[in-house]
């Protein structure tokens, strides 16, 4: 799928409201626009911050911070949709449910890259955020084995925002979930209602496992 990485007015407007926190300890950001596949490779290396001038911890504030840290065409189109700009049929699915801490967006393309995001508030005031990538990507010739020309980009990332702090810190999935999963074998469904994560088969038709949220952690 051809990727167009033009930073449009919607992105510019939103990111003006979230000035980067240069000068804070350990802050770095990727120097270029990233595909979801690249983000999955690089996310563990970066800490990013709440947008300047806000103390909100809701899912859309997290999305703005993530978009600033990891510019991506799907994120840009979701911003367009939120601001009621014409996306010219680029999106097939868009949901923003701030009260339930949930957001989702998918591209209307052959490989349909998309994301889900949600958050859990712990009893101690900390917040845990999850980002699930869905869809496929075309393989470069050097990556191909056999006749398969694409691969799943399914992945699950976690970030923690501690009470009173402004840093979104990456947390390894095995730390959060208590074991290691190959998420390319699943379609991860994050909760819009309830707290549990569901691992579906690749076709998103059969439930394989439920990761239950109990007492501030997954069981």
Ordered list of secondary-structure elements with their pairings:
Layout: H1 9-16, H2 36-42, E1 48-49, H3 59-69, H4 73-82, E2 91-97, E3 102-107, E4 114-121, E5 127-134, E6 136-138, E7 150-152, E8 155-161, E9 167-171, H5 173-177, E10 187-189, E11 197-200, E12 207-211, E13 213-214, E14 217-218
Antiparallel strand pairs: 1-9, 2-3, 3-4, 4-5, 5-8, 6-7, 8-9, 10-11, 11-12, 13-14
Summed up:
With 219 residues, the protein is an alpha+beta fold. The chain has 5 helices and 14 strands. The N terminus is likely disordered.
Q: Could you tell me the radius of gyration in angstroms?
A: 17 Å
Could you give a short account of the major beta sheet? 7 strands, antiparallel
User: Count of DSSP helices?
Assistant: 5
Task: Say how many strands there are.
Answer: 14
Q: Distance N terminus to C terminus?
A: 38 Å
Q: What is the ordering of alpha helices and beta strands?
A: HHEHHEEEEEEEEHEEEEE
Helix proportion range: 10-25%
Point out poorly predicted stretches.
Answer: 1-32
What best-fitting shape do the alpha-carbon axes yield? Answer: globular
- Average pLDDT over all residues: 81
Q: Beta-sheet strand percentage?
A: 25-35%
Briefly note the structural class of the backbone: alpha+beta
Strand arrangement, major sheet: 1-9-8-5-4-3-2
